[in-house]
DNA sequence: CGATCCCGCCACATT
DNA sequence: AATGTGGCGGGATCG
């Protein structure tokens, strides 16, 4: 029924449909709607390939193409899908054939295909099981939901269960942090302990389970005081702030999930039937009470079981007992936990048997572990948890007590990103074309450094483009050390930190292109990126932090990342390579404009980069384009690269080469590419425009500023890409120390998909002025910088972003929203995945790229994005 | 026909 | 009021 309705709806009132999806993509919708009503279908869900079922239905109905898509979709790999999506399907949809879609449609969507278990697998596939310790991957519910083509509600089911096992934690509204399985054993251990307390007794009997069922339930009740049980179970969450905690119905699903797992851990047989579990889990106890209640409980258990199954912790079996064959699940996960109960506190990493992964990687997590322990022990409640509660309120609350720090950090980052995003969107919308984005760290910089490191970063920033030369020198040297993430130890000194070449965005993956980085940098960066990328999609949000730490390195590293450090890049690289393909570094064509470095004006650089791109792409960039526009050609290549990168194999080598090459040629521009976690969803493309090679430095954490002029294109999966280009200009304009900022200014936050919606293009006025601001490096912190800052740090800093600031230093920056169609001036296109194309196309302004070129200065158009788009396309000549 | 469990309404929480 | 969460159970689909 729904389907029909919608289908109908769509034609009639696209808008209606939109509401659902649209909410997310605000920016886009307005524009598109007018253009292509059809979009509705698309729109709702960003991802073409995995639209909501309904949407799918509609689409499929609309066009056969969709079906194919879906089929493909089945294949899984969002990535693949995305690629596929390249095809202009979306457009087609519009066209849609009515051909008897219905029949096909119906067939397709088998219930199984929509199963929670499958969905969960897809979800899990997006993130690395063992993410680097430092990285924090943030998960945007909206984004994931759209990518996976399901309603958000379903994601909650998954996330809630994952959260119960601490595989993820809620950071903020709509945002979760992916932790991976590093702590899983710890968590299980804790649960086991708790389970023994609660259910241990019962378990004893257990083998007989069948009979026992009832008894079980009963006993349990009797034996264990509910209160205790609960506490234990809840441990992590609610208790703390008892007050608030319970207000909500407490997340029964989470608690249920924990209890369910406990049953397995306590059970001798490791097999638990749903009946028993349901009975035990029915708090009320009064058993039977409602048959309906029991029934509902069982339903929930199925939900949980599906997720646990996807995690490989349990599998379904059937127990035949007296009563007959009953559905049951068997625990197939780890049984013994290293630290095991022996010592409750097992946390200590040192003694901890757990794989180093935990320790090293998890360093940050350890905290969590602690928390857990606590939780194990009731005592725990006292401590942090309360805070948690508080926090929650404040930030919207992470449920999990532990990791607060991280969470905060994440949340901050996220917030920033979100802020940026919003701003961007706003800007986009608002015609104030000229508005510049300035994401400066606000004075509140201190925030930046949630993590230790703040300082370093800034310096880096300075590097700004203009100073590239300086930077180079500095950066190269300094950077090297910083690079360390991989090798850092070698250098010994962390000083480098500041200069990191990259920007990290909390959001999903980033795609960065940097102008010649020095070898060192490159290498390091690459690895990093690679890592990120490797993560598969995982990289996501997590990346930024990680990167930051690493980069910022020394300082940062200390606490959390130590491990990483130790494990040098090599590992990472290998890892990365093997794993994923993420990062690509594209060796730039040697083109070096080496001199660029020397050249004060970064101006040269940009062109170079562009060229490089072109070369890479093979597309001849238009000379004019040189500035930036040329990007389009890149797209294809990039994409390819992307895909390649993903491949474990190649990436590494390529990277290495690149790095080497780079090394040779200090100036050569390089690109970093970070895949988005899932792949498709979003990309960020960042490349340094003019700058000299060194130019790009990002402070890891602090980073707020990017000194290098960069263009970042965050692409949400869907379509929006915001692209920002900063013109090389820098120096002059920003007298301010920021130089760095001023120069580079582009950022995108694609963190969550949302950003995507509004593509933004920012160009400094154009041209680069070679001037370098002498003081570029100055504190980025200073508010003065008008230019954009992209550093995650900034983001964290909280509202630091000043998007609005129209002018940064002297440069006028223009924001342009890039619409998909029109290409972005530079690389944007490349960035866009096929799917984007579709979107873009729709709008119809494809050819625009040319127009864009001007972006830099000219673009100041005030018109709304749409208008802009139109204008652009129309006025391309501009 | 029982086992599964998708789907999405709707209440409650949060913003 | 809008939006985020997530309990809940009708009823469709699977086996």
Automatic annotation (TrEMBL):
Keyword Cell cycle found: yes
InterPro entries found in the cross-reference section: E2F, E2F_WHTH_DNA-bd_dom, WH-like_DNA-bd_sf, WH_DNA-bd_sf
Location in or out of the cell: Nucleus
MF (Gene Ontology): DNA-binding transcription factor activity, RNA polymerase II-specific; RNA polymerase II cis-regulatory region sequence-specific DNA binding
SMART domains noted in UniProt: E2F_TDP
Keyword Nucleus among UniProt keywords: yes
UniProt domain E2F/DP family winged-helix DNA-binding: residue ranges: 111-180, 248-333
Stretch list, region Disordered: 1-93, 332-358, 379-407, 527-585, 620-660, 842-878
One GO biological process term: positive regulation of macromolecule metabolic process
Name by which UniProt lists this protein: Transcription factor E2F7
Upper lineage: Eukaryota, Metazoa, Chordata, Craniata, Vertebrata
């Amino acid at each position: 029924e729904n389907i029909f309705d919608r289908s109908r709806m769509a034609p009639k009132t696209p808008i209606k449909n939109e509401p659902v999806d649209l909410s997310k993509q605000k920016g886009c919708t307005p524009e598109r709607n007018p253009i292509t009503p059809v979009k509705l279908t698309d729109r709702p869900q960003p991802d073409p390939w995995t639209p909501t079922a309904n949407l799918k239905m509609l689409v499929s109905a609309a066009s056969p193409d969709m079906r194919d898509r879906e089929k493909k979709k089945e294949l899984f790999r969002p990535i693949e899908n995305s690629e596929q999506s390249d095809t202009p399907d979306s457009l087609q949809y519009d066209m849609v054939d009515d051909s008897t879609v219905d029949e096909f449609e119906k067939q397709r969507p088998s219930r199984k295909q929509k199963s929670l278990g499958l969905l969960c697998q897809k979800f899990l596939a997006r993130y690395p099981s063992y993410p680097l310790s430092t990285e924090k991957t943030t998960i945007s519910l909206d984004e994931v939901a759209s990518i996976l083509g399901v309603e958000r509600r379903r994601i909650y089911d998954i996330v809630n269960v994952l959260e119960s096992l601490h595989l993820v934690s809620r950071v903020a509204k709509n945002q979760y942090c992916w932790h991976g399985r590093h702590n899983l054993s710890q968590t299980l251990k804790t649960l086991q302990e708790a389970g023994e307390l609660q259910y241990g007794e019962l378990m004893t009997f257990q083998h007989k389970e069948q009979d026992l069922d009832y008894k079980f339930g009963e006993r349990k009740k009797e034996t264990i005081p509910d209160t205790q049980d609960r506490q234990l179970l809840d441990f992590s969450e609610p208790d703390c702030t008892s007050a608030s905690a319970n207000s909500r119905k407490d997340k029964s699903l989470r608690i249920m999930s924990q209890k369910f797992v406990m049953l397995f851990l306590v059970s001798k047989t490791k097999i638990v039937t749903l009946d028993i579990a349901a009975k035990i889990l029915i708090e009320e106890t009064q058993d039977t009470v409602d048959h309906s209640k029991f029934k509902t409980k069982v339903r929930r258990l199925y939900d949980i079981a599906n997720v646990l199954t996807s995690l490989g912790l349990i599998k379904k079996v059937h127990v035949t007992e007296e009563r007959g064959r009953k559905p049951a699940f068997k625990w197939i996960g780890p049984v013994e936990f290293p630290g095991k109960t022996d010592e409750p506190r097992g946390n200590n990493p040192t003694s901890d048997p757990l794989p180093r992964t935990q320790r090293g990687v998890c360093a940050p997590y350890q905290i969590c572990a602690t928390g857990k322990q606590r939780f194990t022990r009731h005592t725990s409640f006292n401590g942090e948890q309360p805070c948690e509660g508080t926090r929650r309120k404040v930030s919207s609350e992470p449920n999990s007590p532990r990791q607060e720090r991280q969470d905060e950090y994440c949340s901050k980052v996220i917030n920033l990103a979100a802020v940026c995003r919003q701003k961007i969107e706003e800007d986009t919308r608002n015609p104030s074309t000229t508005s510049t984005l300035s994401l400066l760290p606000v004075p509140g910089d201190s925030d930046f450094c949630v993590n230790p490191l703040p300082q370093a970063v800034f310096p880096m920033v300075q590097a700004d483009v203009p100073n590239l030369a300086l930077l180079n020198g500095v950066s190269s040297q300094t950077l090297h050390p910083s690079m360390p993430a991989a090798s850092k130890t070698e250098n010994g000194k962390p000083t480098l930190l500041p200069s990191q070449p990259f920007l990290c965005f909390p959001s999903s993956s980033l795609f960065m292109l940097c102008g010649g980085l020095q070898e060192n940098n490159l290498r390091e960066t690459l690895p990093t990126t690679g890592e990120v990328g490797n993560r598969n999609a995982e990289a996501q949000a997590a990346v930024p932090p990680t990167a930051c730490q690493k980069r910022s390195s020394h300082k940062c590293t200390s606490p959390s990342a130590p491990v990483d450090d130790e494990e040098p890049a090599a590992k990472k690289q290998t890892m990365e390579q093997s794993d994923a393909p993420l990062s690509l570094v594209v060796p730039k064509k040697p083109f070096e404009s080496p001199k660029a470095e020397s050249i004060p004006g970064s101006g040269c650089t940009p062109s170079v980069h562009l060229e490089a791109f072109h070369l890479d792409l093979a597309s001849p960039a238009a000379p004019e384009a040189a500035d930036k526009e040329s990007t389009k050609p890149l797209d294809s290549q990039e994409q390819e690269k992307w895909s390649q990168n993903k491949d474990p194999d190649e990436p590494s080598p390529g990277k290495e080469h690149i790095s080497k090459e780079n090394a040779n040629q200090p100036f050569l521009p390089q690109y970093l590419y970070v895949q988005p976690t899932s792949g498709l969803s979003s990309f960020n493309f960042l490349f340094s425009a003019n700058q000299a090679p060194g130019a790009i430095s990002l402070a890891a954490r602090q980073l707020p500023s990017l000194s290098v002029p960069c263009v970042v294109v965050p692409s949400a999966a869907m379509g929006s890409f915001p692209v920002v280009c900063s013109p090389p200009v820098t120096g002059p304009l920003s007298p301010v120390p920021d130089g760095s900022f001023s120069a580079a200014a582009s950022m995108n936050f694609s963190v969550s998909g949302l950003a995507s919606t509004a593509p933004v293009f920012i160009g400094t006025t154009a041209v680069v002025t070679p001037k370098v601001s002498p003081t570029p490096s100055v504190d980025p912190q200073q508010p003065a910088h008008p230019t954009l800052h992209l550093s995650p740090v900034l983001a964290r800093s909280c509202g630091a972003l000043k998007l609005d600031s129209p002018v940064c230093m002297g440069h006028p920056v223009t924001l342009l929203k890039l619409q998909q169609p029109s290409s972005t001036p530079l690389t944007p296109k490349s960035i866009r995945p096929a799917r984007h194309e579709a979107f873009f196309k729709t709008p119809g302004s494809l050819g625009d790229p040319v127009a864009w070129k001007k972006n830099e200065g000219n673009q100041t158009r005030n018109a709304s994005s749409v208008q802009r788009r139109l204008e652009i396309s129309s006025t391309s000549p501009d």
